[in-house]
Amino acid sequence: MKRILIIVTLIILVCVNIADDTDDNYVTESSTVVIPTIEEKDIVIIEAHATKIISKNEFIEMNSYLESRGNYKIANRYKYVGKYQFGKLALTEMGYNETWIDSVQSSVYYKLNSKGVKIWYFDLKLFPPEAQEDAICKFYHIIEKRYIKNDIEKYVGKTIDGVYITKAGLIGASMLGCGNVHTFLSSNGENNPKDGNGTSVRSRLKHFQDVELKACF
Question: Which CATH number goes with the domain that contains 149?
């Protein structure tokens, strides 16, 4: 954590030749001025939030771990698919054909694991890894330049509900919905939306509060 020490210096103005020689309460031109020793209580420590600069690829991998643990073939019961858990709205926004989107979502199925828990998958042939990687870069570009541009300009560098806001955090949290992110910010953290799995905007913003993007998408 960076620390900036601000030392307040006492400036003493010495008045000369205006004192009565018999009055010890005045300073004369032959007097010695002693500047008080600066004590700990006179030092103000201001702590700035330190952030680590990361590359776009590092950011993408951090976010993919949160979304799917980096699994390209995973899905969920809401038919969000792939490494970045794309839903129909996101895919539509990026210009994908609606018929293709429907085919991808229709391919979602589940298997029971050894504990009887449903694990959801989809047909990876319809949306292979390289296509998913292309899609996430396109998606982040749209998010940054169109949907949260004003929020980035207004809120980055501020602390809301104990969370330091970074651009990385805003883009990462937008995976939960840009409108949800704006709701959290504009309410000063009083309204903290969650997605269908219970992940809150605040928790996602906090996950990225110590990192910042090196460049734009």
Answer: 1.10.530
Burial of 185 (0-12, 13-18, 19+ CB in 10 A): buried
User: 5 lies in a domain?
Assistant: no
Decide the pairing of beta strands 52-54 and 211-213: parallel
The 10 Å CB-count burial string (b at 16+, else e) for 101-133 is beebbebbeeeeeeeeeeebbbebeebeeeebb
- Residue 115 covered by a domain: yes
Q: Which domain holds residue 197?
A: 52-213
Distance set, CA 77 to CA 73, 85, 182 (Å): 14, 11, 26
pLDDT one digit per residue (tens) for the chain, 217 residues: 444 433 333 333 333 343 444 444 434 444 444 444 545 443 333 347 889 999 999 999 999 999 999 999 999 999 999 999 999 999 999 999 999 999 999 999 999 999 999 999 999 999 999 999 999 999 999 999 999 999 999 999 999 999 999 999 999 999 999 999 999 999 999 999 999 889 999 999 999 999 999 877 8
Which uninterrupted H or E stretch holds 131?
helix 129-142
Distance between CA atoms of residues 122 and 28, nearest Å: 90
Instruction: Read off the pTM.
Output: 0.74
Question: DSSP state, 81?
Answer: B
